[in-house]
Design brief:
The structure holds two protein chains of two kinds. By secondary structure, chain A is an alpha/beta fold. Chain A contains twelve helices and 21 strands. Chain A folds into three domains: about 5-75, Thrombin, subunit H; about 80-350, Rossmann fold; about 365-435. Helices cover about 35% and strands about 25% of the residues of chain A. In chain A, helix 2 (about 160-170) packs parallel to helix 3 and helix 10 packs across helix 11 (about 395-410). The longest helix of chain B is centred in the C-terminal third of the chain and has 25 residues, at about 440-465. Classes of the chains: A alpha/beta, B alpha+beta. Strand 5 (about 40-50) of chain A pairs antiparallel with strand 1 of chain B. The structure holds adenosine-5'-triphosphate and magnesium ion (MG).
């Protein structure tokens, strides 16, 4: 262990966000280095690779304007997140520096930004119902506390309105509310202002980490780790229920690809690195609850599916790690349905434990199953209708077609109104009754 | 053997250790992280470290342990949960809290627990290493203990002991202990392999009836995300008619493992009535735990499974998912800068995989018993595309293949096993067995069920052109019955009582649906209208 910082002026190459530094004594993997730019500003970097006395450093900030003579200080520590309840109400950049004009807070604790995996035997099962006020989620794809449930969207769909609606309306059983950790990755100014306005309207507290579209790409990899370190702290040290909204994970993955390419790593599917699954898991798996501890981390990442393709590596690997997905559909959006949730490919894998008597209502499972089954049937018949025409179909089939239509327009569509779970389920029952389908 | 770290790149650490052997274990750095030598170059050894290397510095010490990655085998493995390096997760939780700490050297077996030793060998007897000398009762199981070496038995205990104490000694004074160490990558020996001929009943109708498994056989089921792999793995783990289950959560979710622990602790084995957890060993390396240990985890698991097989038990090894193992292999290979094969996987992917599958089978054990090790593995193909290398490599070696179908899953048809594309090479033998032992109509019912599903498919194509109204009544009846087969017979909701079905119940259920069809067809012939007939 070295006791002080060591400063080197031995940069031998600069490629994008990567620096090589020579003749470094005793570097550590993951060690944080500080590089001072000619304008006097310091940027941080992290040791990626050590080969004897040559060290490869990934810089988190802007490398433009950096020269080979820049001093590089090795700090002997890994990336740490400063933590304190005073974070609440604050806005930070991707490197955890305040950008809201207020002075830095005094940390109560520091922890490594990457965190440590939760021991599976220490996990408490997520089973507490979260009411989001959205029927497509609450009634059909129920979210529970400690779950990670992404929103799969397409370019041009109102994913941010859906996310904002969840933030503003989410309530715990018994009326508890969430502290929100908002992580913005590569957002345009326009999106950013939209989210900040919604956050400002919230009654509960929030912590925001913002990396905008024109800010350093490498910070995009860091911001969610800081966000999650903050969330874990608020949840497990302070006993709060934390809802983490990360948008947009597609920008995160593109940043990962960009940095991987700069490192000359072997590209995998569509150029994304082969370790993207493990890397995404190191974020998503930080959601959860812990036995004997009060708080929870619930995660709601937003993924924009490139080319509307759910098999694209970003939504694909996300779906392989998260506990379900809420899929938005262009078709429903064009029909004017809001939120445009397509419930067929959507799924909440932890729904089972969070519904029923004592959680929502005793008849929840039965209603959801029936609605689901009949709607799926109606959707399938739509294809047939396109071929043989409505006249070629049996009376029974025509009922299913109408039901599917009503299901979308009345149950899924709700505009800006918030529905509580009872309201959502009652609507479902009413729909089934109208089509005389409440039986089998 | 000690040396120093000279280079670090992610989990790959180069040390200047002389005299170590390939695949030897090494401890590196002040944190004493565990790794395995994966390459030797002149004076240097390249070590794959099983733990997070963040914070590790060059010039820190490295020490060779002069043995390959081994598991410790002995009483007390059952109902335990271990990580890929066989560290006991519950004790780790107690030792270092809810977040996993690195460098721990907790031993997998509880050293304090008291066991009662029952000797079976006699003093003065000549024994070989795999000969049984006695047993302890591990829950409901007779845990056989072997001599571990050749010699003449000089002394045997009879009574209580713990694992720090010997259970006997050879005449020449060497102690006999209850713990064995075994290098995980080396298959445990047996006398000979027998061919799988007996069914492995899973309690899942779609499997047992259409694509039955055999004890000692291997099955894989690939499916995109959300197609029900984990639910199926867990259902098979709960309900299979085997003695013991080793479940590997390989690169998947932490919550699923917590759920498995919870449920298995609360449920009982439907065949023996004993608590389910008592017949289960769980190995877990979730997706966010270190990748190299994920690669090792399936070997750690299979070594423990073989150990119980060697006591004459029927052991089932489940892994969810083998793709995550293959990806770990790929990550390691690429950090070693090996020449990549298809989709970046190393070219030895297929041979490693088939080497692993070869560890399944029915065997005559070294001490003359019969044991079996079956494997049921899930595969997670990227984008749900089955042409990818891992699915293809599995297909070449596995005995049964269930294709999980995303469109069935979207319709909530679970288990989403596609009945046209799946197959089982054990089918012929096992169907004969069920026909003899369960229902004389088994074979006939199976054939008719298949035919109906096939016919439904062709009728559906016709209906898409002429409309369902355009079909004849007999065909419309068949469509209705096929729908019942799908919804009532092939679907099996894992969250209800229906999650488990004995072969007898399975045969009765399909028999009832087919009889309904035959009666209805008769009545149609008598001129009764279809709507009337369908009312029952
Ligand atoms: N037999 C079943 N009965 C009822 N529901 C099921 C069944 N199988 C699967 N499901 C439903 O499908 C969901 C997804 O299943 P599961 O978690 O097993 O998928 P998976 O294939 O393992 O996905 P991944 O590859 O992402 O891990 C479950 O949460 C459950 O809602
Ligand atoms: Mg799964």
């Amino acid at each position: 262990m070295r006791l002080s910082e060591h400063i080197y002026r031995t940069i031998s190459s600069i490629r994008g966000p990567l620096l090589s530094v020579e003749r470094v004594f005793n570097a550590r993997a993951g060690e944080i280095v500080r590089i001072v730019r000619p304008d006097g500003e310091a940027v941080d970097g992290e040791v990626l690779k050590i080969e004897g006395e040559s060290v490869l450093v990934q810089v988190f900030g802007e490398t433009r304007g950096l020269g080979m003579d820049a001093p590089v200080a090795f700090t002997d520590g890994v990336k740490m997140a400063p933590l304190s309840p005073d974070m609440i109400g604050r806005v930070f950049d991707g490197s955890f520096h305040p950008i809201d004009g207020s002075p830095p807070f005094i940390p109560a604790r520091w922890t490594p930004a990457t965190g440590q995996p939760i021991n599976p035997t220490a996990r408490a099962r997520p089973e507490e119902f979260i009411e989001t006020g959205i029927t497509a989620i609450d009634a059909l794809n129920t979210l529970v506390k400690g779950q990670k449930l992404p929103v799969f969207s397409c370019a041009g769909l109102p994913s941010r309105e859906v996310a904002a609606a969840v933030l503003q309306n989410a309530r715990l059983a018994g009326g508890g509310e969430f502290v929100v950790v908002f992580v913005a990755l590569g957002l345009t100014h326009h999106d950013y202002s939209f989210y900040m306005e919604s956050l400002a309207e919230m009654r509960t507290g929030f912590v925001a980490f913002v990396n905008r579209a024109d800010e350093p790409v490498v910070e995009r990899l860091l911001a969610p780790r800081f966000g999650l370190a903050a969330a874990e702290y608020l949840a497990f040290d302070r006993g709060m229920d934390v809802l983490v909204l990360i948008t947009d994970m597609t920008n995160y993955c593109d940043a990962l690809r960009e940095v991987s390419t700069a490192r000359e790593e072997l590209p995998g599917r569509r150029g994304y690195p082969g370790y993207m699954y493990s890397d995404l898991a190191s974020l998503y798996e930080r959601a959860g609850r812990i036995k004997g501890m009060a708080g929870s981390v619930t995660m709601l990442p937003v993924v924009t599916m490139p080319e509307d393709d759910i098999t694209h590596p970003i939504p694909d690997l996300t779906g392989y790690i998260t506990e379900g997905q809420i899929v938005l559909s262009r078709e429903l959006h064009q029909k004017g349905v809001f939120p445009p949730v397509d419930v067929l490919p959507s799924l909440s894998r932890l729904m089972q434990r969070g519904i029923g008597a004592g959680h929502t209502r005793g008849d929840h499972r039965a209603i959801a199953d029936l609605l689901y089954r009949h709607y799926a049937k109606g959707r399938e018949l739509r294809r047939l209708e396109a071929i043989v025409g409505r006249e070629g179909m049996t009376a029974g089939d025509r009922v299913m077609l109408d039901l599917a239509e009503a299901f979308e327009r009345e149950l899924i569509h709700q505009g800006d109104t918030r529905r509580d779970i009872s309201g959502s389920l009652d609507r479902g029952v009413e729909l089934l009754k109208r089509f005389s389908l409440e039986g089998a | 053997m000690t040396g120093r770290i000279v280079a670090i790149s992610g989990p790959t650490v180069t040390v200047d250790l002389k005299g170590v052997k390939l695949y030897d274990m090494v401890r590196v750095g002040e944190a004493m992280l565990i790794g395995e030598v994966v390459r030797l170059e002149r004076e240097r050894a390249v070590v794959q470290v099983y733990e997070d290397t963040r914070g590790l510095g060059v010039h820190e010490l490295a020490r060779g342990l002069d043995k390959p990655l081994t598991v410790r085998l002995g009483p007390g493995l059952l109902s335990g949960m271990f990580d890929g390096l066989q560290r006991p997760m519950e004790r780790l939780f107690r030792q270092c809290g809810p977040f996993i700490c690195s460098g721990s050297d907790l031993t997998p077996l509880d050293q304090e627990r008291q066991w009662r030793f029952f000797p079976l060998a006699r003093v003065g007897e000549e024994v070989a290493p795999f000969d049984v000398i006695g047993y302890v009762e591990e829950g409901a199981f007779r845990h056989l203990l072997t001599a571990g070496a050749s010699g003449t038995i000089g002394r045997l205990a009879d009574g209580e002991f713990n694992l720090t104490q010997p259970v006997g000694a050879f005449a020449d004074g060497r102690e006999i202990t209850a713990i064995r160490e075994w290098p995980v990558r080396k298959p445990r020996p047996y006398r000979r392999k027998l061919s799988p001929a007996l069914p492995l009943v899973t309690g899942q109708r779609a499997v047992d009836f259409l694509f039955p498994l055999a004890r000692g056989g291997t099955a894989v089921f690939p499916g995109g995300f959300g197609t029900g792999k984990t639910v199926l793995e867990q259902a098979v783990a709960k309900f299979s008619a085997v003695d013991l289950v080793v479940y590997v959560g390989c690169g998947e979710r932490g919550n699923e493992m917590a759920e498995l622990l919870d449920e298995f602790t609360a449920m009982s084995d439907p065949w023996s009535g004993k608590p389910l957890m008592e017949r289960t060993i769980v190995v877990v390396n979730t997706s966010n735990m270190p990748v190299a240990a994920r690669e090792a985890s399936i070997y750690t698991a299979v070594a423990m499974a073989e150990y119980y097989r060697d006591m004459g038990y029927h052991v089932l090894l489940l892994a969810d998912s083998i793709s995550r193992w293959a990806e770990a292999l790929r990550e390691i290979s690429s950090s070693l800068e090996e020449m990549p094969g298809e989709e970046g996987y190393p070219t030895y992917l297929a041979s490693r995989l088939s080497g692993f599958f070869e560890r399944a089978g029915v065997v005559e054990t070294m001490n003359g018993g019969i044991g079996s090790l079956s494997m049921v593995l899930s595969v997670s193909p990227p984008g749900g595309d089955f042409t990818e290398p891992v699915t293809q490599a599995c297909l070449r070696t596995a005995g049964a293949f269930f294709m999980l179908d995303t469109s069935l899953a979207h319709r909530r048809h679970f288990p989403a096993i596609n009945w046209f594309q799946s197959y089982s090479l054990y089918e012929r033998n096992i169907v004969r067995h069920f026909t003899a032992e369960v229902s004389p109509r088994w074979e006939e019912l199976q054939r008719r069920c298949r035919e109906m599903l096939q016919r439904e498919e062709s009728l559906r194509e016709v209906a898409e052109i002429v409309g369902i109204e355009g079909l004849q009544d007999a065909d419309r009846l068949l469509m209705k019955v096929a729908e019942r087969i799908r919804l009532e017979f092939l679907c099996q909701n894992a969250y209800t009582e229906d999650a488990f079905s004995t072969p007898e119940q399975t045969a009765a259920k399909i028999g009832e649906i087919l009889e309904f069809h035959d009666r209805a067809a008769e009545r149609l012939k008598e001129g009764i209208l279809l709507d009337e007939v369908l009312k029952g």
